[in-house]
Amino acid sequence: MFYTTDTNQHGLKHDPFKAIVAPRPIGWIGTKGRDGSMNLSPYSFFNAISDSPKLVMFSSSGRKHSLKNAEETGVFTASLASRHLAEQMNASSEAVPYGVSEFEVAGLTAKMAELIDAPYVAEAYTVLECRVTQVIQPVGLDGEPAEAYMVFGQVVGIHISEEILRGGRIDMGIARPIARMGYRDYADGGADVFEMTRPTGAEPKR
User: Fold this and answer.
1) Any alpha helices (H) in 3-64, and if so which ranges?
2) Is the whole model's pTM more than 0.90, yes or no?
3) Using CA atoms, how far apart are residues 129 and 19, in angstroms rounded to an integer?
4) Who has the most CB within 10 Å: 131, 134, 142, 191?
């Protein structure tokens, strides 16, 4: 099948776009409001975009609480959503009024970061502490802004639990990060971990 996205007439029960761009890492974003309230929300439009400097980004569909807090305070955290915290991650996605803590809704412990004024999930295996570098609203081919806001942050501190370290590396089979697939589906990133070595170009030609 083929269809154009200007009409989006795919004939399927659900739009397949997000099922095609999958799996997607989950940015479990922790922020603190100017009023002192704690906020925690999962974003499937999230990824690392640079290693030097270390930059990550999450994208908010509409002006949500995480975006508001990150813009106003200039900081956020990204906790690893692992398989053992999948239910809590899902619970934290509930739409609640501003000022209500999703940490409490999901039964999680909010711990303050070391370098920035933002909370993170104490039960998470890894956490990134980030300072906002840019907030942009991308545009489409028609030049009109999308209904999305991209928040870029530089990682200034990293927490790693000793529980997931083996041989000087993070053991993904233990960490078991979860990722968003399409529809209501999720993937367990530790279920089928395999290793491959990138070719160097020095291999003999056949």
Assistant:
1) 17-20
2) yes
3) 29
4) 131
